[in-house]
Amino acid sequence: MIKLTRYLRIREVLLIGASFLCSTPVFSQGMVAPAAPGFDVESTSIPHGQIDTISYYSKTVGNNRKAITYTPPGYSKNKKYPVLYLLHGIGGDEKEWLNGGKPQVILDNLYAAGKLEPMIVVMPNGRAMKDDRATGNVMSRDKVEAFSTFEKDLLNDLIPFVETNFRVYSDREHRAIAGLSMGGGQSLNFGLGHLDKFAWVGGFSSAPNTKSPEQLVPDPKKAKEMLKLLFISCGASDNLIVNSKRTHDYLVKTDVPHIYFIEPGFHDFKVWKNGLFMFSQLLFKPVDPSTFSKYNVTDSQAIK
Is residue 173 left, alpha or beta, with left meaning phi > 0 and alpha meaning psi from -120 to 50? Predict the structure, then answer.
């Protein structure tokens, strides 16, 4: 009888403890630190993800289009994955991140360190036109307009293709979008413009194609309720920082939680690689909004 009573008491304590853990918010991590030297150096002693090229038919454009995919180490068709759509700049194409940013190396190293949720990364060509090559005058009107057209291509053609051909989740909570420069503007425009499609949004050194803050976030209350993470980063010496800062200022004014990270640097892959390094670690995990305002803003005098 004594043993039974003791057992019941222990069981009661364990149940209370379990109940407490389930009812208490659990955050997977605190702040994510900027990349340390070596984060983008390939290691032969760790598992590697796989890079592939996919081709999908675009009803928006009227022809087949290409995108690069990265599947994580240990990728299995027997489980589902969230997806990050990673966009390039005005002078690039679907290979720009591969050629300049080593995303596969950065992500492989983060997986080896146990810092990422397994995800598929899709790097499309954000210039949605029949001849989508980054040739000639990349600033010409038709090519610039093609970056806006990509919104329809992404939502109506690429995402459905990915969800048909890969084992991925199809809900907004498992879909992220981020990009550099022109792709950063696209990510803010498309992500914040379609909160029913994206819960995780990142803009690295976003370009002047970024909509005004009032257009990006016309309903701050809705954005606050629906966004899991809004991440904005830029180099302190980047001439385009005004696009990021005006968005940040508006978000502060309207009380929309977000990370605003300004680091030493210019408009280049040093900043963009670090953006991917930090943003990717936060994806598809519980995040603590109370840490957002603690991220560093370098050389604030230079960006007023």
Answer: alpha
